[in-house]
Design brief:
The structure holds two protein chains of two kinds.
Chain A: E1 3-5, E2 9-14, H1 18-30, E3 36-40, E4 56-57, H2 69-79, H3 86-106, E5 120-121, E6 131-132, H4 138-153, E7 156-159, E8 161-169, E9 172-180, E10 185-196, H5 218-225, E11 230-231, E12 236-243, H6 253-256, E13 260-262, H7 283-295, E14 308-311, H8 317-323, H9 325-335, E15 344-353, E16 356-358, E17 370-372, E18 377-378, H10 390-409, H11 420-434, H12 443-457, E19 461-462, H13 464-481, H14 495-519, E20 528-529, H15 537-540, E21 542-549, E22 552-559
Parallel strand pairs in A: 1-10, 2-3, 2-10, 3-7, 10-17, 16-18, 19-20
Antiparallel strand pairs in A: 4-6, 5-6, 8-9, 9-10, 11-16, 11-21, 12-15, 13-14, 14-15, 21-22
Helix pairs in contact in A: 1-4, 1-10, 2-3, 3-10, 5-14, 12-13, 12-14, 13-14
Chain B: H1 4-7, E1 12-21, E2 31-40, H2 45-55, E3 75-78, E4 81-84, H3 90-96, E5 102-106, E6 113-115, E7 118-119, H4 122-130, H5 153-160, H6 170-174, H7 176-180, H8 187-197, H9 205-212, H10 226-230, H11 237-252, H12 258-273, H13 281-304, H14 321-343
Parallel strand pairs in B: 1-5
Antiparallel strand pairs in B: 1-2, 3-4, 3-5, 6-7
The chains are: A alpha/beta, B alpha+beta.
Chain lengths: 572, 344
């Protein structure tokens, strides 16, 4: 395996989704003389941002004239079950109108109201209809706009590069090492600053996840192995309405437009759990409600597992065709169901990771020169539960801040430098797994077992004995991974090697998810402990921090930043 | 509701996937490998490929990411047709397959091959850059974020379908012009160019158009409609191509390029005679000099083989030309009206 050294960069951005692209654009705007590169595992326009259907929240007041940033802030904090840092939420919501308008000004094709302003619709957990959208392809069109603008600005892309490890000296990073998938060569990217924007880690639940195959927490794992703490990793959001067979998502927009959730007795069962908001309750609550209905025997039966109905038939063909065309197509392609004719079979699916790399409000991590933004990071604006429409907003707002901050601060750091010896170390690590002999483990089996144990033991309803089992399983899987074999030994586009490297990332992070879930003896937001069913503010109103110490997880904590809003019981 | 869907899922069938293989490091030329696996109803081609890679041959290389038909990574030719592996049902392919229980999987055409089912997307990105496939906002960067452009639903609808494009390159792969000329702009880039050109926020219309009417641009399309037929998002790509041509004629006139002159010659022939006067078409499109320089040898060959088209005076009008002219005028009038109402 050969390797190459790139010229030193001022900023290397890892990840070409919404956060990474916004960061690149903003960094170039802040200081055009900087040398900036974006590394992406896939072509940027393939990034998972494209899968976000519903929209992005901003208190524009186009639909509800009395909407305010303040109300958006309160909804977000309440939605987070008071675990979000209130100063961070301030930033998120106050920047929202500006960033949505900025995207609009750059060409994002938003759907429109009758008065030609940007259209907004209701979303779960929001007091006003403030979710801006483009039909049900909002993320896709935002990603297209950002990619187009980056091409316009001449951003340098290294597409289909997989970032392996940060190069760390003392308490700062000197750049990173990545594989060029096209050649199989390792390349060193010396850099003054690194922005990690690689998306979430919910794919570790594999079949019970709506995420793209590549949402394997690469950025988090890279930072975690370099000693940067992960925050609130136990908080994984289960989306209430994944398609029964594939786990693919039916957007919350489908309920926003008026869809009903129905059990096998024909009841709109949300009346039992959220009298007022019904189907538009916050995601954690709706997911738990579906799971409870299934556990208590009110779900439909099928060989592909138990499920419930999301019924849109009463909305009529016109509305479904104009507002939810992609959802309709998806239901037909993947489930064989036309939502105009019959209800959609759904069940909860792992969907979003609230936890991530611990950062401050300027996206800085504890390691100087390393920044993180988007789902990859945990500022924290989502706390224990993210509201629909706040994730696109998060990647845009904090992607932009990351680009700006890194551009301002890059000059403070020395040029990056990666030694020959370090590259060699990375090379040997990979070569080892490609040519291992004797007893070996298969990638597919390990990944399958990881997904299973997580869904079973670290899923929606959690409990001490289950979590212990989950932790044991993960530890064993990490041990077995040391003997994993890469069967494809070619250099050019070795996707088998890529899968194995992604699995390593998922395994490392799974340990932090299970450990955090085991430690947190309370129920808050998406984290539900059957053995500790209530929120325990006295003991647990705090963030967990997971740090890698000698290869294993070590837990710490960090206080929650409060502000105008006192702790309250969270009801809908 | 009962569960009729799932009663079928027990049905299984052995399916052979004939997969295109090429590893540039060891193979001098591509070949095919066969893999036979049991496939139940409801399984997509991508899931089958994943199964084969995981259980039979880990070295098979293909791209896949979202598995939900929105990222555009897994474009490939399945039984000869370019489509997404993740949204293509195996059983549906089999129902149309010539050979029973066989599915041939090949990489997209018209893009450089890298390995197995993976092609290089860079040429497409380069074309997006060449044809400025972005909105160059009329608003200066410094004032962005303060207020919205007011855009009517009608304008939104003009580019709504075009923004469905996920750049999967299925249309690129199916394009017959690209097979002959790799420099051709390509359907996807024409679609994106059109999307930008009908956006009132964009300040670059004229420049983009000037690029599009040059060689390898919008006039090279031969209306075969393969792009539109193969589009995985059912986007009317040809409408976009016609849209650009119409705009080119409206803004730049009929004498602008050989492309528009060719279109004009077509129109006037059809109007006058109901058919083409082929003998003079090259002259009217590209001028006498160009025709002499480029087509003389071919003309000589045609004369030798008695294949020359009849000279103009000998081209007789089609039967019923009077009725036809009436219809032609009526249609032209309709199109003009349509344009006017669009402009409003």
């Amino acid at each position: 395996m050969r390797f190459e050294r790139m010229k030193p960069f001022d900023i290397v951005i890892v990840g070409g989704g919404g956060a990474g692209l916004y960061a690149a654009m903003e960094a170039m705007k802040t200081n055009p003389s900087l040398n900036i590169a974006v590394l992406s595992k896939v072509y940027p326009n393939r990034s998972h941002t494209s899968a976000a259907q519903g929209g992005a929240n901003a208190a524009l007041g186009n639909k509800a004239k009395d909407d305010t940033v303040e109300m958006h802030i309160f909804d977000t904090i309440k939605g987070s079950d008071y675990l979000a840092d209130q100063d961070a939420v301030d930033v998120l919501c106050s920047e929202a109108p500006k960033i949505i308008r900025e995207l609009e000004n750059m060409g994002t094709p938003w759907s429109r109201m009758d008065d030609n302003t940007i259209a907004q619709r209701p979303f779960g957990g929001a007091g006003r209809p403030r979710c801006c959208y483009c039909a049900d392809k909002t993320g896709h069109t935002i990603l297209q706009t950002l990619y187009e603008q980056c091409l316009k600005k001449g951003v340098i892309f290294f597409n289909e590069y997989f970032a392996l490890n940060l190069s760390v000296k003392g308490s700062r990073s000197r750049g990173l090492v990545a594989i060029n998938m096209k050649t199989g060569r390792l390349e060193a990217f010396p850099a003054r600053t690194v922005i990690l924007a690689t998306g979430g880690y919910a794919k570790m639940y594999w079949n019970r996840s709506s995420n793209a195959a590549g949402n394997t927490g690469d950025g988090q794992a890279l930072a975690y192995r370099a000693g940067i703490p992960m925050k609130d990793m136990e908080f994984v959001q289960f989306h209430p309405t994944g398609l029964r067979k594939s786990g693919l998502l039916v957007t919350e927009g489908a309920r926003g437009e008026g869809g009903y959730l129905i059990n096998k007795n024909g009841e709109r069962f949300m009346a039992r759990y959220a009298k007022e908001k019904m189907e538009l309750g916050p995601r954690d609550l709706v997911s738990r409600s579906l799971e409870t209905e299934i556990l208590e025997g009110r779900g439909f039966d099928s060989p592909a597992g138990k499920y419930l109905h999301l019924d849109l038939t009463h909305l009529g063909a016109d509305l479904i065709k104009s507002r939810l065309p992609q959802i309709r197509e998806m239901c037909m392609q993947f489930e064989g169901v036309d939502p105009i004719e019959e209800p959609i079979p759904v069940r909860p699916t792992a969907h979003y990771s609230m936890g991530g790399i611990d950062t401050d409000n300027l996206t800085r991590t504890v390691m100087s020169g390393v920044y993180a933004a988007g789902e990859c990071a945990c500022v924290s604006v989502h706390g224990a539960n993210r509201l629909g429409g706040n994730s696109l907003l998060d990647i845009l707002v904090f992607g932009r801040i990351a680009g700006h901050t890194a551009a301002e601060e890059a000059g403070r750091f020395e040029p990056g430098n990666i030694s020959e010896a370090e590259l060699k170390l990375n090379t040997d690590e990979i070569r080892g797994s490609m040519h291992s002999s004797g007893h070996y483990e298969r990638y597919g089996e390990l990944r399958e077992e990881l997904g299973q144990t997580l869904a079973l033991n670290v899923g929606i309803f959690r409990e001490a004995s289950l979590l212990k089992k989950g932790m044991q399983d993960i530890a064993e899987l990490r041990e077995r991974f040391k003997r994993v074999r890469v069967f494809d030994t070619s250099d050019v586009f070795n996707t088998n090697l890529l899968q194995v490297l992604e699995l390593r990332n998922m395994l490392d992070l799974a340990e932090t998810v299970a450990a955090g879930a085991f430690a947190r003896e309370e129920s808050r937001g998406s984290h539900t402990r059957v053995d500790f069913p209530v929120r325990d503010d006295a003991k647990w109103h705090k963030h967990t921090l997971a740090t890698m110490v000698k290869g294993d997880v070590s837990l710490g904590e960090k206080p929650v930043t409060m502000g105008r809003y006192e702790l309250q019981e969270r009801t809908y | 509701m009962t569960v009729p869907i799932d009663q079928h899922t027990e049905l299984k069938q052995d399916v052979t996937f004939r997969i295109f293989r090429f590893n540039p490091q060891v193979d001098s030329k591509p070949y095919f490998d066969d893999y036979t696996i049991p496939v139940e109803r409801g399984i997509t081609v991508l899931r089958s490929l994943n199964y084969i890679k995981e259980h039979i041959d880990a070295s098979i290389s293909f791209r896949a990411f979202c598995q939900a038909g929105i990222c555009g990574s897994c474009g490939m030719r399945i039984n000869g047709l370019s489509q997404l592996a993740c949204t293509t049902q195996v059983w549906e392919v089999l129902a149309k397959s010539r050979e029973p229980a066989l599915i041939k999987v090949e990489p997209l055409r018209n893009l450089p091959l890298i390995k197995d089912l993976i092609v290089d997307m860079d040429p497409l990105v380069d074309k997006m850059k060449h044809y400025s496939n972005w909105v160059d906002s009329t608003m200066p960067e410094s004032s962005m974020g303060k207020k919205e452009f007011l855009i009517s639903e009608e304008e939104f609808l003009r580019y709504d379908k075009a923004t469905d494009c996920i750049l999967c390159a299925s249309c690129v792969s199916e394009c017959t012009i690209l097979r002959a000329n790799k420099e051709y702009v390509s359907p996807a880039v024409l679609l994106k160019s059109y999307r930008m050109n009908v956006d009132s926020r964009d300040a670059l219309h004229a420049l983009r158009l000037a690029e599009l009417v040059k060689d390898h641009g919008v006039w090279d399309c031969t209306h075969c409609y393969r792009c539109q037929e193969s589009c995985v998002k059912s986007i009317p790509i040809m409408d976009a191509i016609h849209g650009i041509r119409e705009e080119a004629i409206t803004l730049r006139g009929l004498k602008d390029t050989s492309g528009s002159k060719h279109a004009e010659a077509f129109m006037s022939d059809i109007e006058k005679k109901g058919k083409l006067v082929e003998a003079t078409l090259p002259i009217r499109t590209n001028g006498v000099l160009w025709t002499l320089q480029n087509l003389l040898p071919m003309a000589v060959k045609m004369i030798m083989k008695h294949r020359t088209p009849p000279p103009p005076p000998l081209v007789k009008s089609s039967k019923g030309i009077k009725v036809f002219r009436e219809l032609f005028r009526e249609m032209t009038e309709h199109v003009k009206q349509d344009h006017k109402s669009h402009k409003k």
